[in-house]
Write a structure and sequence with these properties.
- This protein has 244 residues and is mostly beta strands.
- It has one helix and 21 strands.
- Strand 17 and strand 18 form a beta hairpin.
- The two termini are 30 Å apart.
Length: 244
């Protein structure tokens, strides 16, 4: 009986978070959706999704204690730092270290779809207090260090695209493309968190006791020690976040 209770305490908390359950928040001219956030109990990572019209700006801001990773899934955007703009497009991401001023401006003729994750979560971001485009708002207090923001073409990688070698010590981002029926194994450390965000297709995650199914734009959120088998139910493109 004691062994059972001990194992139960160690068991991971796994849940499917539907995109339809996401909560909107505003930054500048862009309405984003918080998918994985502290309101769900997240302590080490977040996941947000934004759809931004041409010319719209996600206001410049600073994360005091968090790294920010921004992926362009469709369209193209400029990363803005002060007066400088740096274009990055679908399949590319920007890793923004703690303390760096940054925002995005949608480029091109069509909408841009982006996801971002902050490690650890930035609670203030969701309150609107970091929105430097609000009337009377102060300019963001941070730094702009040439070369500090790192750009990566994640779409060319079927594996990790951010890691400690890039300066991302708080989380690893992994891009995966699987054919229907293909699978891989993933391990989440005790005290760690992981997110499996489905950009295209559908997948199932099994922890040896239960199977969790996620469709397009849904996420499987894992907290605590787990050994998982992830299987593509159709051709799948997913982003995996691991925050130990």
């Amino acid at each position: 009986m004691l062994t059972f209770l001990f194992l139960s305490l160690l068991a991971a908390d796994i849940r499917v978070v539907r995109f339809a359950e996401s909560v909107p928040f505003q930054m500048g001219e862009v309405t984003s959706r918080r998918i994985i956030h502290p309101g769900l109990g997240a302590k080490k990572t977040t996941l947000n999704l934004s759809v931004s019209k041409p010319g719209n700006e996600f206001a410049q801001h600073v994360h005091d204690y968090s790294d920010d990773t921004i992926l362009v899934l469709a369209g193209e955007v400029n990363l803005r730092q002060g007066d400088s703009l740096r274009l990055f497009k679908a399949g590319e991401c920007a890793f923004v270290p703690t303390g760096q001023i940054h925002g995005t401006v949608t480029a091109g003729q069509g909408e841009a779809t982006m996801i971002s994750f902050q490690n650890p979560p930035d609670l203030i971001l969701y309150t609107g207090a970091r929105d430097s485009k609000k009337p009377g708002a102060a300019a963001p207090q941070g730094v702009i260090t040439p070369g500090a923001v790192k750009y990566v073409n994640f779409s060319r990688k079927n594996g990790a695209f951010t890691n400690a070698a890039l300066g991302s010590f708080r989380a690893t981002g992994t891009h995966r493309q699987l054919k229907s029926g293909q699978h891989f194994r993933a391990t989440v450390a005790a005290g760690g968190e992981a997110v499996f965000f489905v950009w295209r297709g559908a997948l199932k995650v099994n922890d040896g006791q239960k199977t969790y199914a996620a469709g397009e734009r849904d996420s499987v959120f894992v907290q605590g020690a787990a050994k998982l088998d992830v299987t593509a139910e159709s051709d799948v493109e997913l982003i995996q976040i691991e925050a130990p």
